[in-house]
Amino acid sequence: HTRCSSVSWGSEMCIRDSYKGAFFKMQILFNEQSRTFHLTNDKISYIMTVLPNGHLSQVYFGKKVHDKADFSYLIQSCARPTTSYISEEFHNIISLSHIRQEYPVYGTSDYRQPAIEICQTNGSKISDFHYQSHSISKGKPKLENLPATYTENDDEALTLTIHLQDPVTLVEIDLLYTIFAQNGIIARSAKIYNQGKDDVHLTTAMSLCLDLPDCDYEWLQFSGTWSRERHLKVRKLEQGITAINSTRGHSSHEHNPFIILKRPTTDENKGEAIGFSLIYSGNFLAQAEVDTHDVTRVLMGINPTTFDWKLEPNTSFQTPEAVMIYTDDGLNNLSQSFHKLFQKRLARGYWRDKARPILINNWEATYFDFNEDKLVTIASKAKECGVELFVLDDGWFGKRTSDYAGLGDWYPNTDRLPNGIKGLAERIENLGMKFGLWIEPEMTNMDSDLYRNHPDWILHVPGRHSSECRHQYVLDYSRKEVVDYIYNLLAKILREAKISYIKWDMNRSITECYSVAYPADRQGEIFHRHILGVYDLYERLTSEFPHILFESCASGGARFDPGLLYYAPQGWASDDSDAIERLKIQYGTSFAYPISSIGSHVSVTPNHQVYRLTPLHTRANVAYFGTFGYELDLNKLTPAEQEEVKEQIKFMKEYREIFQFGTFYRLSSPFENNVTAWMVVSEDKETAIVGWYRVLNGINLPYSRIYLQGLNPDFCYQQSIDGKSYFGDELMNIGLVIDDPSAGQPYGDMATSCDFDSKVYVLKAINK
Ligand code: GLA
């Protein structure tokens, strides 16, 4: 990178947004006198300043403000009793414990959790980073071996790199800040260089630190467990630490690497909020620490609890990227900004902008009990109904007739598939469908050829018991030879057979994280190195097979994170395929992730996870707001149901671009109400689709309306259920009146009134 320590300059760029023809302007300004940086576009300002003693201080992140030469009045730091000061020279002026900082350390007068901690050969963990120089460049640099947001041309973003140095260890840091032209997005990461003579250990290296001046926020997190992922949890920030994390080796079912801080009055359609997302699939930490003067420090990055990276002289460490988005337009607007960024500038490749094929997956139809003919029978009926892609799930390889054996042996089981994957894929293609395949490349069973030949290829501590989960072990992807071996097996299958889709599963957390290939002082690197190995395999397979659609999966949604979206534009959201359970899962997921990324299928009733009976139309009405597919044997449905399925598929084919790529609005929350509602609107606002779902039926119910969002107030829309027309402003301000058979009918009607009912309304502009 180039440096310009003494030069005062800024960079300004204008771009015209290709969709809306609107004019966006972004700038990175540097005032040499006050050493103040101001990143700004038409939405936000992000301001930092270099303090007289060289520390980099956070000044402001929020709605756009005018630039000024000097914002130093915002560096609030008064002398307080029992305060320690960084330097006598600045006695009574600057204590780091009262300064909002960009990349703080612990132990030099700041007592909060730090962004970086470096353990040195003398045992000291103290460091002190000072501004050295900075540079500004167009576009956004790629992060080495890590997923990250990107630009397609240099006009879309500007990047500021601020260079810091610790004078004692000679460790240097490049803090990267990218401002995008559109929306309130700042992408951040840090690269740490050891320019000294001695080894150091990085024991904390966060991707982002943001010190906010007050704590009047609610904290939103998306948490759960297997089959209950990404449920919205809200709590008020208080003095002390609020945090979520993962220590499982993957982002986890338990917590998603995404949080929102919102003002208490902010709702879906108005008010301030900041979303924080870590583009990473391994152990993470997201926390907000409120000090006793109500300053809030947000930290996000690799979880320090399980991290210790030995940084030898002349080597560097790149943190994952974290993205912050600010809005003053409510949570729907915040989510829409994340959706657009993740959909267009995080996901990549051939499938990024394409409507996704309607698929059928045999897992819930057969589990491990199948052979070639049975699969072809399922596929044939699906083809007849209009399905485009048949996916063969677990059980096709090695001795995998149950989950006790076979993982790692990625060659077809010819007892079940006498013509191999190649032969089955040909039969499916001959039906006029595409063929897809399940893999779980990071795992092995003890009962497998892989394990018998390479027992030291799993993560384990020699001499200790290795804990099991689903009878399987995690391969040591910190070792290149292990990744190479799996790559060769998988690439062979993908080269030989006509495969259009891969479902990449990952079904257990890491225990006994230790690699026999690394020395004692590098064991703290293994969790991260493992994830780098996973990314390496993804990168190799997706670049060698660019036309294959990859869907990520991890016992459902245990790794539904932005890191994987970079490689796989969609992910199986949850193993819970029940439509009612899915309301909360998909609603929670939608806060960060675009509808095009949410794998959602229609499955049988009674549902296999919760044994609930739901109407077929509701199962489809929920699954439409995702990638859409079927997880059952359509042969087992009645002829009338099969006809209904044909209609569903026809409907989805007509509207899938709008479902998957339209602007999504949450309207009524399943976490608060018996009724869930959401909608999508096409880019030109000429078509909108509204989903309405009522969990429990009632009797003699109140009348029900939903207030729509995002329509053109002047367009007149024809509504698909009653065929009547309504103005956009009418539907948004007076509401869409739900045609509810249970309202006003004291005795209900068995045919039309039931629990788990739902409706999907299509609105089409007829006068524009
Ligand atoms: C995981 C996945 C399921 C299915 C099974 C197969 O649980 O989430 O969708 O693929 O593995 O073993």
How would you summarize the topology of this molecule?
Layout: E1 11-16, E2 23-31, E3 36-40, E4 44-50, E5 56-63, E6 116-119, E7 130-138, E8 157-165, E9 171-180, E10 185-194, E11 200-212, E12 218-223, E13 231-236, E14 240-245, E15 255-262, E16 273-279, E17 284-290, E18 296-302, E19 309-311, E20 316-318, E21 321-327, H1 331-345, E22 359-361, H2 363-366, H3 372-385, E23 389-392, H4 420-430, E24 434-439, E25 443-445, H5 449-453, E26 472-474, H6 480-496, E27 501-504, H7 526-544, E28 549-552, H8 562-565, E29 570-572, H9 579-589, E30 598-599, E31 602-603, H10 616-623, E32 629-631, H11 639-661, E33 663-668, E34 675-681, E35 687-694, E36 705-706, E37 716-719, E38 725-727, H12 728-734, E39 736-737, E40 757-767
Parallel strand pairs: 22-23, 22-32, 23-24, 24-27, 27-28, 28-29, 29-30, 31-32
Antiparallel strand pairs: 1-2, 2-3, 3-4, 4-5, 6-11, 7-8, 8-9, 9-10, 10-20, 10-21, 11-18, 11-19, 12-13, 12-15, 14-17, 15-16, 16-21, 17-18, 25-26, 33-34, 34-35, 35-40, 36-39, 37-38, 37-40
Helix pairs in contact: 6-7, 9-10
The chain binds alpha-D-galactopyranose.
